[in-house]
Design a protein that fits this description.
By secondary structure, the chain is mainly alpha-helical. Helix content is 70%, strand content 0%. The chain starts with 5 loop residues before the first helix and ends in a 22-residue tail after the last helix.
């Protein structure tokens, strides 16, 4: 049996890899198209006050990070159906996965705004503390880029809280702000110029 050259074998593997990547890309496009279709259908059903049907059209909660638009509609539908505890649970999932998110005032009801505010006030202090702890661990292992992003996120979370809750995290805010500055990646200093050697004196 004729043996194949290493080049031919490598070419076969390259083709297989390329086909696999193309298939993954197509699958991703189809997933995005389905997601876009899901939210359009959910929105249409919600506007038509078909709340049960809208809930049935939403992807199931499976432990993966939730989408802000889907979970907002889930909470809105649950509120409209009088299932407030489930609505709160939906908003809690959203806040845990997207702690910096807050729905714009013009895009949702005052009741939903109040629900979001209450959940964020309840959950964000612990999320900010965990974010700071993770950033500090990254800083101690010299991972300055990750640390800097984490300290910045902790500061952002604390600053987004109402004044009463923010005041309770004043010490943490101070520490996170200081480490945010310390962890900033600064450009390397330019090397000092090498002094020129004096020209040798001519012999007498």
């Amino acid at each position: 049996m004729k043996s194949r050259s290493p080049f031919a074998i490598a070419l076969v593997f390259l083709l297989i890899h390329s086909v696999g990547n193309a298939a993954q890309g197509i699958e991703r496009v189809l997933d995005l198209a389905q997601v876009a279709g899901d939210i359009d259908r959910v929105r249409t059903l919600y506007v038509a006050a078909a709340y049960e049907e809208a809930l049935a059209a939403m992807p199931a909660v499976n432990g993966a990070p939730v989408r802000t638009d889907i979970e907002q509609y889930r909470a809105l539908c649950l509120l409209a159906l009088g299932r407030e505890e489930e609505a709160v649970a939906a908003v809690e999932r959203l806040v845990r996965d997207h702690p910096t998110f807050f729905p714009p005032a013009g895009e949702t009801s005052p009741r939903m705004q109040n629900l979001f505010a209450g959940v964020r006030t309840k959950l964000l202090p612990d999320i900010a503390k965990r974010t700071y702890v993770d950033a500090k661990a990254a800083y101690e292992t010299k991972n300055r880029e990750v640390a800097h992003a984490g300290f910045g996120r902790a500061v952002q979370l604390i600053d987004s809280l109402p004044e009463a809750e923010k005041n309770g995290l004043a010490d943490l805010r101070l520490l996170a702000g200081e480490f945010l500055e310390l962890s900033a990646v600064r450009p390397a200093a330019a090397p000092s110029p090498v002094p020129e050697k004096p020209a040798p004196k001519p012999s007498p």
